[in-house]
Structures are given as structure tokens and as C-alpha cells.
Amino acid sequence: MTNKAVISTEQAPAAIGTYSQAIKVNNTVYLSGQIPLVPETMQLISDDFAAQAEQVFKNLQAVCRAANGDLQDIVKLNIYLTDLSNFPTVNEVMGRFFTQPYPARAAIGVKELPKGALVEADGIMVI
């Protein structure tokens, strides 16, 4: 029998669909995608890509902390970009939130994201 728990925090945007912010199974936490919504307003932080990327990592960090972990505990990170020319910027912003060893990662170009976001990220954390 697995130990499954829903992770939820008001420090990150509320789910805008039929999903949880994260699900913890034993010592693994599956983090749902975070877009750059400000938790208090549920609005995009800005039209600026760097500001959006920073908010995405802040939101992920809040969910990690709600699960008694931290961004450094993420072992697999997926980043979705509506414009792959923003790849260098996402690397720069990510460098402010993560230290080595960095998680395994994929950066994927997509046509569009919820609410017109420019970036979204999800991941798997082991604590």
C-alpha cells in the first residue's frame, strides 16, 4: 500500500482545473505545472518573460516547501516555452533558483499555455 497525500498551499496559485498542486507518494512528490500567476490575484505577473519565469520558480518553490522539500530536491524538471528564443533567459533565471547538481531537465516548445502564459514548469521531487 502506498502512502499518497495531496499537497496544497495558498503560497502558490490555486489549481485552475481538475488537478492538485502536487501529489506525494512515499518520498516522491509529483509537482503539477505552474504558470506565472500571482497566488493572491490569480493574474499573470507581467508580460515580461523573465518576470514570468521567476514567478514560475517561486510558485514551484512554494509547492515544494508545502511538501517539506525545496527546489533543490527536484530530480526532473520540465519547462514549456511558447518561444524557444527565451531559452537563454530561462537558463539565467533558473540559475538564480537552483545550484549544482541541477535536476535532469527538458525544455519543450509549445504553441500556447493556459491564460496566455509564456512559460510553465512541472517536476518530480524526491525528499
Characteristic terms for this protein:
about 130 residues; two-stranded antiparallel sheet; 2 helices
Please describe the topology of this protein.
Elements: E1 4-7, E2 22-25, E3 28-34, E4 37-38, E5 43-44, H1 49-66, E6 74-81, H2 87-97, E7 104-109, E8 119-126
Helix pairs in contact: 1-2
Q: If strands are numbered along the chain, what order do they take across the biggest sheet?
A: 1-2-3-8-6-7
Gyration radius over CA: 14 Å
The helix count comes to: 2
Series of H and E elements: EEEEEHEHEE
Residues in helices, as a percent range: 10-25%
First and last CA, distance: 19 Å
Runs in which pLDDT lies below 50 for 5 or more consecutive residues are none
Global morphology: globular
Largest sheet: 6 strands, mixed
- Could you say which structural class the secondary elements and strand pairing correspond to? alpha+beta
Give the percentage of residues in beta strands.
Answer: 25-35%
Total count of strands: 8
Average pLDDT taken over every residue: 96
Structure write-up:
The structure is a single chain. This protein is α+β, with helices and mostly antiparallel strands. The protein has helices at 49-66, 87-97, and strands at residues 4-7, 22-25, 28-34, 37-38, 43-44, 74-81, 104-109, 119-126. It has a six-stranded mixed beta sheet with strand order 1-2-3-8-6-7, covered by helices on one side. Strand 4 (37-38) and strand 5 (43-44) form a beta hairpin. The two termini are 19 Å apart.
